[in-house]
Every structure is written in C-alpha cells, then in structure tokens.
Amino acid sequence: MAKPMVTPTAENPNTDTALASADIRRFIDQVNIPYDSFTLPNGLRVLVHHDSNTPMVLVSVSYDVGSKHEPAGRSGFAHLFEHLMFNGSENVPGDYLKPLTDVGGRVNGSTNSDRTNYYEYIPTQALDRALFMESDRMGHLLGALDQKTLDEQRGVVQNEKRNGSASPTSIVDTMTRAALYPPSHPYGHSVIGSMKDLDAADLDDVRSFFRAHYAPNNALLVLAGDVDLPTARRLVTKYFGAIPAGPRNIRPDVVPAPLKRTISETVTAPVTSPIIVREWSVPGVQDRDSFVLDAVMEVLNGGEDDLLTRHLVRDQKLFQTVSVDNSSNAQVGQFTITGTVRPGIDPAVAAAALDREIAAFLAGRPDADAVARFMARYTYGFARSLENVTSRGSTLADGMMTQGSPDAYKGNLRIYAAQTPASLMAVARKWLDRPRYELTVMPGPRVTPKEDEGIDGSAVTVPAVPAIAPEPPSQLAARRKPRPLPSVAAPSDPGFPAIERTRLSNGIPVLYARGSAVPFTKISMSFEGTQLDVPGDYSIRFMYALLDKGFAGQGEESINRRKELLGLNLGASIGLDQGSVVLDAPDVSLGDGLGMVRDMLISPDFSAAALERLKRESIDRLARARLSPSTLTTEAISPLVDAGSPYNWLLMYDTAADIGAVNQAGLRASFTRWIRPEYASIVVVSDKSLAELLPVLERTIGDWKVSGKTEPRAPVVHHPRPGVPGIVLIDLPGAVQADIVGRQTVPIGDSEPAPALILASKVLGNSFGSRINMNLREDKHWTYGSYASFDRRRYGSQYSFEGSVQQDKAGPVIAEVIRELKEVLDERPITADELAAAKAAALGGAASRFATRDGIVGALDDVRRNGRSDTYPAEANARYRAVTLEETNAALRAQLSADRWVWAIVGNAAIIRPQLDALKLPVRVMKAEDALPPL
C-alpha cells in the first residue's frame, strides 16, 4: 500500500514537503547529459552527445541570429530565411526536405527573437547526407536563391502569419509589444514580421542578410544519438571545414526597461467574453531572476490547485480561466497574467478582484509547500523529457545559445531547488511591484494593425515593389564543382523489446516491455465500455473525469499536492472506444502511485462540489468555443457526412442542459457498471524488469476485486449512409483565414489498414511532402499547411481534408483537392517512385517510433486491442517491403471517391461566397450562432 502523507500541524509543519524537497535535490544531482565538444578553425562549435540505444541521430544547427538582429523595415527576415533555407541550395536544388524525409527523417526548423535553429532527426545511415545538406546551405545557398524562391516562401510565411493572426487574441501581442518596447527596440517587433515588411523584401536585402549572419563562426552544430566523437569530428571536418568564416554577429545591448507609469488600454476582438491582461517587462534567461520568476509563475498558476485558479475561478467564480506566463528571451522577458471573465460578470469587477489577488500575493509570502511543488513538477517533468535524444540535444543547444554553456540546465535546476518563500518573494516584488501594462479585451470587431492591412484577403492598395535584377554571377556565392548527394544505405529493421505477458491474481492481463532510457515506469490500464455503450448518457464521461479528483477520503487538493510532490502523472479519461487510467511515475514513487490507483478504483468520492465545478467548467468551455473554427466546422459537417453516426453526439458539442442533468447517482451507477477487473487490461513499460514490478502490482492492483457479475454489452449496429455532396459556409465576419474541412465516408474499419493503404495515404495527403500539401503550400502558397487522412473508427470511418487557407483562395482550394482526388484515382495514380519514397520513409523512421516509452506503450496497446502476435511490432518493415504498386493504388480506389464529399468552411462569407459558384455544388450559408447557438 502507499505510504500515508504526513498531515502538517503546528508542531510538525510540512514534514513531507521537506522530505520531498530533499529527494528532488538528490534527483537533480543525478540529472546529466554527457557530451564532448570541439571547434573547427573556421569557428564552427560542435557538441556531441553519444547514445547508441536507438539507430537515430539528431543533427541540429543553430545560428546566432533572430528577429532582434533585423534592421528597421525588414521585420521577419530571420524567420523568412528559416523558410528560404528549406528551398534548396546549389548542390541540393529544390525541396530540401524530400532527400531526408524519404529515408525516414523528421526535418524542421524554428526561429525566435535570439536564434534560428534547423534540425533533422534521421536514421544513422543518413548522417552523411544530413551533414552534407546542412553544410551546403551554410556555404552554398546564394547561388540557388532567386526571385521565384523568394516569392514562393514569402507566400508561405504570410500564410503562417495569417494562421497566427486568425487567433481571436492575436492583437494582444501587438499591443503589449508596442506598450513595453519603443519601435526601435530589438525585441519590439514580432518574429514573423509584418505583412508590409514581408511584401517589401527583395533579393538584395535577403542576400545581404545571409552574408551578414549565416557563417560557421555564428553557428552551433549539435549531434545527439548514434554517433561517437571520432566519427563526428571526421564528418564535420569533411563537410564544414572548407566553409570560410564570416562577420561575427554582435549581440544588441539590451536590458529590461520597466514602465515608468502604468498604461491602461481597451481593444475589441472576436472573443466571446472579456479578457483582462496584466503585463510587466522582466529579465531574460541571462539573468538569474528570470528563473526565480518561473517559480513565481508556477506558485501563482501552476499545478492543478494554483492560487489564482482557486481564488478567482473556483471560489469567487469571476473568471472562466486565469493563466500566468513568464516568457523569457535571452536578454528580456515578459511576465503576463491573463484572465477570461465569466459570462454575466462585469469586467471591471473581475479586473479589480484580479488586482487585489496580485497585491495580496506581493504583500504576503507562499508557504514552502507551494515552492516545493513547483520544484517537483519542473524537475520530474524535465527528467521525463530526457528519454529522447532530441530533447537532450536541444537542451544542450539551448543552453549554449542563450546562456553560453551546454550545462546551463544544471545551474537552472539548482536555482529552482534553492528557492525559499523569502527569496522568491524578493524577486517577485522587485519586478512585479511596479508600473505595468493593463489591457482589457472586449468582444467586438477584430482590430488589424496598419502594417498588416489586407491580411484577411480583402483588397488593399499595396505599393509596387520594383523588380530587382539578379546580381551578376561574380557577386553570388562562388560556384564550385558540383558535389553529389551522399547515398543512404537501406535501413535495418527496428528493434523492439521482448514482450512479456502475465496475469494478476484477480485475472487482469498484463503486457510488459522494457524501456530503459530514464528511471520512470508508465502503466496504462484500459477498460472496456465506452460512451457508445450508453448513447446520450454523459455520466460515463464525467465519471472518468472525476475518478482522480477525490478518493479514499482524500480531497482533490490533497491528492494533487501528493501527486506533484511525488512526481506522478496520474489521471483517467475516456475516448471513443475505451476508457483508461494512466500512471507515469519515477521509480522511487511507483509504489505510492500504484497505491493511489488502487484507492481510485476502490473508493472514489464523486463529491458534489467537484461535480458541480466540473459541470460549470464544461459549460464555460462551451461558451468559449462558440467562435472556434474547428468547433463550428465539426458542428456543421458531422451530421451532413453521416447523419446516423453513433459518434456524432460525442464529437459535437454538448448543451448546457445535457451537462446540467449529470448527477452523483449517475456517476456511481456508471462506475459500478464499468470499472471492474473483468473489463480491465494493463500495459507496462519500465526500466525495471517485470519480475521487479510484479510484487508491487499484485499488492495494489492485483488484490482489487468487485462483487457481482458483468452485464452483457449491447452490440452497436450502424451502417453508414453517405451524405449529399455540398458546401456549408459559416459566416464569421472579420475572419483572417478560411478554415476548410472536407469529408467522405469510407468502408475501412478501426483495425489497422493494410500497409498499402498507409503508404497510399502518405503519398496523397498524410505527410508534409504529399501531393495535396505540396500543391497548396509550395506550388500555390495558398496555405501554411493542409493535410488529408483516414479517421478509422469501429462504426463508420471517414477520410478528411483540413486546411486553413487564404480567404480569397477558398474556392480554388476545394477545386484543387477534388482535382487531386480525381487524378490519383484515375489518370495519375501513385507512381513507382512515389511508392518507393513512401516505403523508404516508413522503413527509415521505424526505429524512432519505438524510441520512447509512449511509443512502446502505443505498440503494446495495439497488440492488446487487436489480438496481435508478440512479434508484430518488430515485423512492421517486412510488411511495408512486401507492398506492391498495384496493391497501393487498388487500396486507395477501394476507399475514396471524388464525388461523395461534403465541405464546411468558416470565414468571411462576403469574400468566400462568390468563389464557390464555379464548384457547381449546392451551397448553404449560415451564421456562427446557427451552427452553435449561444448558451
């Protein structure tokens, strides 16, 4: 059984907190990411973290250039370059991703205010190719950069900006930056830039920016995974050694500039409830105070029983949500408190209450327990993340780029562990007890910054940008003899840990596999019985949501406190096809965690107070979701695609009446009916052996018994009936993007489809390099990304397209998707080359699927649910290799049709409706309140 927590008393205050804090400090001392380092003569810094457990390598190149280095009038250049450097170099022309994704790599990049990062997570045999490609774009990019490439990627970036600006609260970032920083401040503009500056970008500017910043002496290369130091040194020298050094970046001289007086403003936005914002300028991660402010943030709004949520959301019921964020750049940061006001509450009253809470916090001090809980949450969460070499490599890179040391994480952890209530409050008062920026966001029209006019697709007058003639060849990067792209050997089959099976003394079957990257154990306990078994009854959903909110006489606050101090992730949930209880625990706390699971399964409280709070929060979420495009498209399209689908009531939003009807009697009846050993099964992944785990499993879960007999489950009978093809357009005036969803029913069930269909789906729509995404993103640059995939369900599966696109291209996007469907099913079927690339990607990426405990748990759960053999996960590559081209095209034709589609669009009907006539489909226009009525 779990050890009881000590209840603090006047004579014995916080004994368990002190013990937990000591355990965490000892744990911190054991956290380590070993690495070697060297520097090439041209200044390229290299870090190597060797881990041969999985045949994969992270290749990460970080450049010391971010948005703070951009000249006036050229905001967004660093991020634009992130995209340009994925569009080919002199020896790797065209799409940069395909040579790596086709061999199983994951490729991406990111830009922030301080640095730009590019990474590839690739099979070991592709390391030569990845390093060749990174060196080619570092030393041989400009010769491949032309106006067409600039225009294409400018369009992609502007669609990414539209995605961000589509958020109802996007204006908040614009206004807070303007209030906290003067226009010329290095951190005073967004990373993605303005539409005006992006439109003005020309080739001369872009080439000059590259020459100024993208040199080896401004870069850090991190190799993490299946590569040792001698191999790394040889390959890095081979590919990067000849690239000359360039000008060294100069870091701007920046310090936090707190406001001299409080600034208060009001703005309107397409939100459903008022939003109150309080923001301060604070230090970045190069200042120790930044990490103390992380602790302040977590004490105010961390964990499941934080101070502001407890007082303002649960007790006073003034806000739907309250959040706190300490956003830290390298040199400066912003500390922000944001609250969404509950419907019917005067925002002035809510704001005054929030301000009182802030003042009371600054005048008082938290107890040691709150500080210890933060320390435990962060430390155990950080340690969990280190099971993946990508996280370990990224941690080394981030420390080096922002704090000047790969080991910075160690010092950061020690800063967190050293905090006391007194030290925390000293820093809180230093930075937060001073003037601030106050913003009230009221429901109303969207406000578009002047420099972003026309972002929604409406007509604006854009000053002509003169065409720039290409520079003479002598001014481009010196061309050398072309270098061939290194070949990549065929991948080996992925290893999968041996599966062991046993059965607990109460009959619960257990599947186990070993995963030894970190000292944690993950246990997933699944239950038969779903919402499909009780159509229209919301009790089972709330029953699972409340399982961990009170049990064995312990209230929610006590349970949450205990989970956090012990480093436990423990919760229950229900999906479309099963319910589950999941425990992820440090090995040192595993017995305590399993004891809590047992108590949850034997004696849940289902308290009236917890139920009423959960119901209120559910209704609040419904109110906030009324203008969400994803919510509106789901509401509109679900009954049109398959009107009788048993999933519709689960996927569409509940009503306040449905939620209000849930009661304690229903919860207890649902619990008695479905939470039984006979319905349970367990999968376990741990660094401990099954023999070590069995004793603790037996004395906690194994002796759980329930009286009575199970009731038979009534079969669900459903025969999908395809809907009538057509379009429903949901008018959302002021929208920035058009959100499009298209669906059709398909005959496949919920079991894993033939490998041929998986590969066919990747070619058509379910990968970055798919036909649909390359057409709409790269060729047309009408969207930042769009995908199509199978949604496999037991009772009626569907194939879906989703994309956020330019509003003035909504009609053409649908036309292009229909054309792609017709072509792949008829005159342009999947080719041998496309199938070979999809196979290579699946084969090369197989090892990464089993590199984490979550990946292994998922594979075990598939074996459990579908009755597969224990060798099934390890045989994935053999199944893919056996697929033929004929099978691939036949599999797709058996599922899809271009003329059975139903479409839903959310956006500005005034812009979108005229485009739809050319599609020759019936169109229905409706308002947002018709799709999801107000409460």
Overview features:
40% helix; alpha+beta; single chain; Cytochrome Bc1 Complex, Chain A, domain 1; 6-stranded mixed sheet; 935 residues; 4 domains; disordered N terminus
Named CATH architecture of the largest domain: 2-Layer Sandwich
Outline: globular
Strand content: 15-25%
Quote the distance from N terminus to C terminus: 46 Å
How many individual domains?
Answer: 4
Rg calculated over all Cα atoms = 28 Å
Helicity range of the residues? 40-55%
CATH topology of the largest domain: Cytochrome Bc1 Complex, Chain A, domain 1
CATH C-level label of the largest domain: Alpha Beta
- Total strands: 25
Sheet with most strands: 6 strands, mixed
The SS-based structural class is alpha+beta
- CATH homologous superfamily descriptor of the largest domain: Metalloenzyme, LuxS/M16 peptidase-like
The average pLDDT score comes to 91
The main sheet orders its strands as: 1-2-8-3-7-6
Count of individual helical segments: 35
Give the low-pLDDT segments.
Answer: 1-13, 461-479
Organism: Sphingomonas mollis
Keywords: Hydrolase, Metalloprotease, Protease, Zinc
Protein name: Insulinase family protein
Family: Belongs to the peptidase M16 family.
What does this entry look like structurally?
The chain is α+β, with helices and mostly antiparallel strands and 935 residues long. The protein has four domains: 15-26 and 255-443, 2-Layer Sandwich (Cytochrome Bc1 Complex, Chain A, domain 1), CATH 3.30.830.10; 44-251, Metalloenzyme, LuxS/M16 peptidase-like (Cytochrome Bc1 Complex, Chain A, domain 1, 2-Layer Sandwich); 500-702, Metalloenzyme, LuxS/M16 peptidase-like (Cytochrome Bc1 Complex, Chain A, domain 1); 726-850 and 863-931, Metalloenzyme, LuxS/M16 peptidase-like (Cytochrome Bc1 Complex, Chain A, domain 1), CATH 3.30.830.10. It contains 35 helices and 25 strands. The strands form five sheets. Strands 1-2-8-3-7-6 form a six-stranded mixed β-sheet, with helices on both faces. Strands 14-15-19-16-18-17 form a six-stranded mixed β-sheet, sandwiched between helices. Strands 22-23-21-24-20-25 form a six-stranded mixed β-sheet, with helices on both faces. Helix 13 packs across helix 18. The longest helix is centred in the first third of the chain and has 19 residues, at 147-165. The two termini are 46 Å apart.
